[in-house]
């Protein structure tokens, strides 16, 4: 038994199309960035790990990262530009929202959750790499379980 199953051509095509379609910045992407940044900011201000994790679950920034990795692997400059644009604009929007909401917030003290995120360790890097690998693996072999997905609307 192999550790990794080979991916057939149909699966490769599905993965490519899914990443291409979901890694470009559109209205849905930006709305999800604003919502996840809002939730994460208030989760940090409230010192609530559960709320921060909830924000991570809805943040759309992982797909452009995976698409960028695929683009580099395939030497696909169009996909790389699209995914990089989504990532950079998404991060800039999230930081802007976080700064704006923090300035408006009556809570200005640094709590344990905020301080923990300002001093990442090697363990944090390993966790991030393992999380990315798990997401990519799930996307390739069990696509329905990889992440929360937009529900399709019923056709008229």
Question: Would you give an account of this structure?
Answer:
With 156 residues, this protein is mainly α. Helices cover 71% and strands 0% of the residues. Helix 2 crosses helix 5. The N and C termini lie far apart (46 Å). Mean pLDDT is 83; it is low at 146-156.
* Structural class estimated from helices and strands: mainly alpha
Approximate helicity band: over 70%
Q: Element order, helices and strands?
A: HHHHHHH
> What's the mean pLDDT score?
83
Largest sheet: none
Strand residues, percent: under 5%
Give a count of the beta strands, DSSP E runs of length 2 or more: 0
Count of discrete alpha- or pi-helical segments spanning 4 or more residues? 7
Gross morphology is: globular
CA gyration radius, whole angstroms: 17 Å
Query: Ranges with pLDDT <50 over ≥5 residues?
Result: 146-156
The end-to-end distance, rounded to whole angstroms, is: 46 Å
Q: What structural keywords apply?
A:
156 residues, 0% strand, disordered C terminus
Q: What does this entry show, briefly?
A:
The chain has 156 residues and is mainly alpha-helical.
């Amino acid at each position: 038994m192999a550790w990794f199953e080979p991916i057939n051509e149909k699966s490769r095509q599905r993965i490519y199309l899914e990443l291409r379609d979901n890694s470009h910045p559109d209205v849905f992407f930006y709305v999800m960035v604003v919502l996840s940044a809002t939730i994460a900011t208030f989760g940090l201000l409230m010192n609530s790990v559960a709320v921060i994790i909830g924000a991570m679950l809805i943040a759309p920034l992982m797909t452009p990262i995976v698409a960028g990795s695929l683009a580099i692997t395939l030497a696909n400059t169009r996909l790389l530009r699209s995914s990089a644009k989504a990532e950079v604009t998404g991060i800039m929007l999230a930081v802007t929202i976080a700064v704006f909401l923090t300035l408006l917030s009556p809570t200005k003290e640094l709590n344990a959750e905020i301080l923990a995120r300002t001093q990442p360790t090697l363990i944090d890097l390993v966790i991030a790499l393992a999380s990315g690998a798990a997401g990519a693996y799930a996307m390739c072999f069990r696509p329905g379980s990889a992440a929360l997905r937009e529900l399709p609307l019923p056709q008229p």
